[in-house]
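Team,

Forwarding the record for the chain on the shared tracking sheet. I've put the sequence and predicted structure together so nobody has to dig through attachments.
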Amino acid sequence: MKTKTKLTIVMLSAFVLMSCADTGKVDKSVADTNLTLGLLKTAEASAKEAGQIEIRGTFLQASCSAGTCNTPGSNTVTIQSNFGTTTGYLYVDYVNGSGTSTYRVNAEIVEFNNAERVLYYKPKNSANISALIWTITTENEILICDVFNGKPTLAETKTDLNSRKASGTVYTTNPKAAGCNGSFAFNFLTRTF
Protein backbone atom coordinates (compact mmCIF):
# COMPACT_ATOMS: atom_id res chain seq x y z
CA MET A 1 0.00 0.00 0.00
CA LYS A 2 1.16 3.48 -0.69
CA THR A 3 2.13 5.73 2.12
CA LYS A 4 -0.63 8.22 1.27
CA THR A 5 -3.29 5.51 1.48
CA LYS A 6 -1.89 4.22 4.76
CA LEU A 7 -1.85 7.73 6.19
CA THR A 8 -5.44 8.34 5.04
CA ILE A 9 -6.61 5.08 6.63
CA VAL A 10 -4.82 5.90 9.89
CA MET A 11 -6.34 9.41 9.96
CA LEU A 12 -9.84 8.10 9.21
CA SER A 13 -9.45 5.44 11.90
CA ALA A 14 -8.34 8.06 14.42
CA PHE A 15 -11.30 10.26 13.50
CA VAL A 16 -13.76 7.35 13.91
CA LEU A 17 -12.22 6.40 17.26
CA MET A 18 -12.45 9.99 18.53
CA SER A 19 -16.07 10.19 17.39
CA CYS A 20 -16.86 6.90 19.12
CA ALA A 21 -15.16 8.09 22.30
CA ASP A 22 -17.58 11.03 22.48
CA THR A 23 -20.67 8.86 21.90
CA GLY A 24 -22.86 8.62 25.01
CA LYS A 25 -21.23 11.57 26.75
CA VAL A 26 -23.48 14.20 28.28
CA ASP A 27 -22.78 17.89 28.44
CA LYS A 28 -21.62 18.92 31.94
CA SER A 29 -24.56 21.29 32.48
CA VAL A 30 -27.03 18.51 31.58
CA ALA A 31 -25.20 16.10 33.89
CA ASP A 32 -25.29 18.64 36.74
CA THR A 33 -29.02 19.21 36.22
CA ASN A 34 -29.71 15.46 36.19
CA LEU A 35 -27.66 14.99 39.37
CA THR A 36 -29.54 17.81 41.12
CA LEU A 37 -32.92 16.38 40.07
CA GLY A 38 -31.87 12.91 41.27
CA LEU A 39 -30.78 14.25 44.65
CA LEU A 40 -34.03 16.19 45.04
CA LYS A 41 -36.07 13.05 44.24
CA THR A 42 -34.02 11.07 46.77
CA ALA A 43 -34.57 13.75 49.42
CA GLU A 44 -38.30 13.80 48.63
CA ALA A 45 -38.53 10.00 48.88
CA SER A 46 -36.56 10.05 52.16
CA ALA A 47 -38.91 12.67 53.60
CA LYS A 48 -41.93 10.58 52.62
CA GLU A 49 -40.29 7.43 54.04
CA ALA A 50 -39.56 9.30 57.27
CA GLY A 51 -43.26 10.19 57.42
CA GLN A 52 -44.38 6.55 57.47
CA ILE A 53 -46.05 5.13 60.57
CA GLU A 54 -43.47 4.13 63.17
CA ILE A 55 -44.86 0.63 63.77
CA ARG A 56 -45.60 -0.49 60.21
CA GLY A 57 -45.28 -4.16 59.40
CA THR A 58 -46.85 -7.48 60.24
CA PHE A 59 -46.63 -8.75 63.80
CA LEU A 60 -47.65 -11.70 65.94
CA GLN A 61 -49.63 -10.51 68.96
CA ALA A 62 -49.48 -11.76 72.54
CA SER A 63 -51.29 -10.63 75.66
CA CYS A 64 -49.56 -9.24 78.73
CA SER A 65 -50.59 -9.39 82.38
CA ALA A 66 -49.02 -8.42 85.69
CA GLY A 67 -45.84 -7.24 83.95
CA THR A 68 -45.23 -10.36 81.86
CA CYS A 69 -46.14 -10.99 78.23
CA ASN A 70 -47.09 -14.38 76.83
CA THR A 71 -45.33 -16.03 73.91
CA PRO A 72 -46.84 -14.72 70.68
CA GLY A 73 -49.53 -16.98 69.31
CA SER A 74 -51.29 -16.99 65.96
CA ASN A 75 -53.00 -13.60 66.20
CA THR A 76 -51.57 -11.25 63.60
CA VAL A 77 -51.60 -7.48 63.33
CA THR A 78 -50.66 -5.70 60.11
CA ILE A 79 -50.18 -1.95 60.10
CA GLN A 80 -49.20 -0.03 56.97
CA SER A 81 -49.27 3.62 56.05
CA ASN A 82 -49.81 5.08 52.62
CA PHE A 83 -46.59 6.59 51.25
CA GLY A 84 -46.47 10.34 51.85
CA THR A 85 -49.71 10.56 53.87
CA THR A 86 -50.93 10.06 57.43
CA THR A 87 -53.38 7.35 56.35
CA GLY A 88 -53.09 3.62 55.83
CA TYR A 89 -54.67 0.38 56.91
CA LEU A 90 -54.92 -1.88 59.94
CA TYR A 91 -55.68 -5.58 59.64
CA VAL A 92 -56.00 -7.86 62.67
CA ASP A 93 -56.71 -11.58 62.56
CA TYR A 94 -57.61 -13.23 65.87
CA VAL A 95 -57.09 -16.99 65.69
CA ASN A 96 -58.31 -19.57 68.19
CA GLY A 97 -56.34 -22.55 69.50
CA SER A 98 -57.48 -24.78 66.65
CA GLY A 99 -56.03 -22.34 64.10
CA THR A 100 -59.24 -20.87 62.71
CA SER A 101 -60.02 -17.16 62.60
CA THR A 102 -62.57 -16.06 65.17
CA TYR A 103 -62.54 -12.32 64.54
CA ARG A 104 -61.04 -10.04 61.95
CA VAL A 105 -60.56 -6.30 61.83
CA ASN A 106 -60.15 -4.79 58.39
CA ALA A 107 -59.83 -1.05 58.84
CA GLU A 108 -58.71 2.13 57.19
CA ILE A 109 -56.28 4.27 59.19
CA VAL A 110 -57.81 7.72 58.84
CA GLU A 111 -54.94 9.45 60.64
CA PHE A 112 -51.83 8.60 62.64
CA ASN A 113 -49.36 10.60 64.68
CA ASN A 114 -45.92 9.15 65.47
CA ALA A 115 -45.10 11.86 68.02
CA GLU A 116 -48.22 11.02 70.04
CA ARG A 117 -48.00 7.32 69.10
CA VAL A 118 -51.63 7.00 68.13
CA LEU A 119 -53.54 5.88 65.08
CA TYR A 120 -57.22 6.40 64.42
CA TYR A 121 -58.99 3.73 62.41
CA LYS A 122 -62.38 3.08 60.90
CA PRO A 123 -63.36 -0.59 60.39
CA LYS A 124 -64.81 -1.39 56.96
CA ASN A 125 -68.09 -2.52 58.53
CA SER A 126 -68.49 0.44 60.89
CA ALA A 127 -69.20 4.15 60.67
CA ASN A 128 -67.27 4.87 63.87
CA ILE A 129 -63.61 5.77 64.34
CA SER A 130 -61.53 4.28 67.16
CA ALA A 131 -58.05 4.91 68.55
CA LEU A 132 -55.11 2.54 68.94
CA ILE A 133 -52.11 3.74 70.93
CA TRP A 134 -48.66 2.23 71.18
CA THR A 135 -45.50 2.52 73.19
CA ILE A 136 -41.99 1.22 72.61
CA THR A 137 -40.04 0.09 75.67
CA THR A 138 -36.35 0.71 76.30
CA GLU A 139 -35.82 -2.86 75.06
CA ASN A 140 -37.49 -1.85 71.75
CA GLU A 141 -40.59 -3.92 72.50
CA ILE A 142 -43.74 -2.69 70.78
CA LEU A 143 -46.90 -2.73 72.91
CA ILE A 144 -50.33 -1.67 71.64
CA CYS A 145 -53.68 -0.84 73.18
CA ASP A 146 -56.88 -0.75 71.16
CA VAL A 147 -58.92 1.85 73.03
CA PHE A 148 -62.23 0.62 71.49
CA ASN A 149 -63.70 4.11 71.77
CA GLY A 150 -65.57 4.25 68.45
CA LYS A 151 -67.15 7.64 67.86
CA PRO A 152 -68.88 9.01 64.74
CA THR A 153 -66.16 11.59 64.00
CA LEU A 154 -62.40 11.84 64.31
CA ALA A 155 -62.75 14.93 66.51
CA GLU A 156 -65.03 13.05 68.95
CA THR A 157 -62.62 10.10 69.06
CA LYS A 158 -59.69 12.41 69.82
CA THR A 159 -61.68 14.17 72.56
CA ASP A 160 -62.65 10.81 74.08
CA LEU A 161 -59.03 9.57 74.02
CA ASN A 162 -57.78 12.76 75.67
CA SER A 163 -60.49 12.41 78.31
CA ARG A 164 -59.47 8.80 79.00
CA LYS A 165 -55.82 9.83 79.27
CA ALA A 166 -56.71 12.68 81.64
CA SER A 167 -58.77 10.37 83.86
CA GLY A 168 -55.99 7.75 83.99
CA THR A 169 -58.01 5.11 82.14
CA VAL A 170 -55.42 5.00 79.35
CA TYR A 171 -51.71 5.46 80.04
CA THR A 172 -48.36 4.02 78.95
CA THR A 173 -46.25 4.10 82.13
CA ASN A 174 -46.51 0.36 82.88
CA PRO A 175 -48.04 -1.14 79.72
CA LYS A 176 -47.25 -4.79 80.50
CA ALA A 177 -49.36 -4.57 83.66
CA ALA A 178 -52.06 -1.94 83.06
CA GLY A 179 -53.05 1.21 81.24
CA CYS A 180 -55.22 -0.15 78.45
CA ASN A 181 -58.90 0.62 79.07
CA GLY A 182 -58.61 0.62 82.82
CA SER A 183 -56.67 -2.19 84.46
CA PHE A 184 -55.93 -4.21 81.31
CA ALA A 185 -52.36 -4.57 80.06
CA PHE A 186 -51.27 -3.73 76.52
CA ASN A 187 -50.65 -6.40 73.87
CA PHE A 188 -47.10 -7.30 72.87
CA LEU A 189 -46.11 -7.35 69.17
CA THR A 190 -43.32 -9.41 67.60
CA ARG A 191 -42.33 -8.83 63.97
CA THR A 192 -43.00 -11.81 61.75
CA PHE A 193 -39.89 -11.51 59.56
